[in-house]
Amino acid sequence: MPSWPRAAHLSFVVAGKGILNMITIASSLVSNCVKRPRAAVLGLFLALLFLPGIPAAHAASPAGPAPIPGSPLDAHNHGVPYDTGVHQIARLFALIAYVLMVATLLLGAILRMRYFERQVNRATVYGAHMTIGLSALIFGALHGLTFLYQPIWHIGTVRLLVPFLGPVQRFPVGCGVLGTELAIAVGCSVWLQRRLGYQRWLRFHQFAYLSFALVWLHVFLVHPEPRHLNLVAVGVALGAGVCLLAFLIRVLPSRSRLRQRAFRTGGGQA
Ligand code: HEM
């Protein structure tokens, strides 16, 4: 058996080689993705599916891992009451809001994609997009409001309205507050459509993707569940994958648009 320093040296060499290999693979992947954007979409989609496998990054002390800030154990250690009923309601509203948000983004992307122009009834999809979007906002806001009744989070009216002020899990909770507020702004901007002009309004409306990214960060960081392999984690990753796919399809120029652009340039030169 190798001695301890030799074993440590060997493991450093192996780890170093592993990192070098990963850098080589990553650089070839990046250059391939630039050449083939559709392969990049698929790669990112698969990466998202495997994100739940990333282990939780909680600091472990010799006495065992510290309790998750805001958890029942944390409340117990601080001598603060913890309401399990409020937690269940918050969780239920959060999961409903997440599913509705994914559906809203998907329907929004369908409304804008040429492929679906003849496949779906535009008025029906538009109606569903609006109704489901509004419901997502209501459930998301109600989920946030429930934390007024869970003292361990120290969330009052001001901390509920101004992101990144709360003392417990400031960044993850702040992402939730900012994501919800951005989603509300994006939703309310419908009333300004005529005043802003369609194209300018559409640019602002696309902040919906940023709002979803913030909410996803919130969900991913605030609770360890989506970082382990379980049903909720797979659902959260699938939802994020669907939204990422919709976003990339909208952002990357389609072949028909590229052909159109080439035709226009060619026509201009002729
Ligand atoms: C004002 C905005 C928000 C605030 C203040 C907020 C706050 C919180 C807090 C403190 C937790 C931790 C709950 C716990 O571990 O006991 C949490 C969890 C969670 N939040 Fe939010 N959140 C907000 C918006 C949202 C939105 C818009 C969504 C989804 C669309 C969402 C989805 C979730 C999910 C899925 C969890 C995990 C629930 C669980 O498993 O217990 N949050 N949120």
From TrEMBL:
It is found in: Membrane. Residues 94-214 form the Ferric oxidoreductase domain. Its main location: membrane. Keywords: Membrane, Transmembrane, Transmembrane helix. InterPro entries: Fe3_Rdtase_TM_dom. It is a multi-pass membrane protein. This is Ferric oxidoreductase domain-containing protein. The chain crosses the membrane at residues 89-111, 123-149, 169-192, 204-223, 229-252. It holds the Pfam family Ferric_reduct. It comes from Streptacidiphilus pinicola.
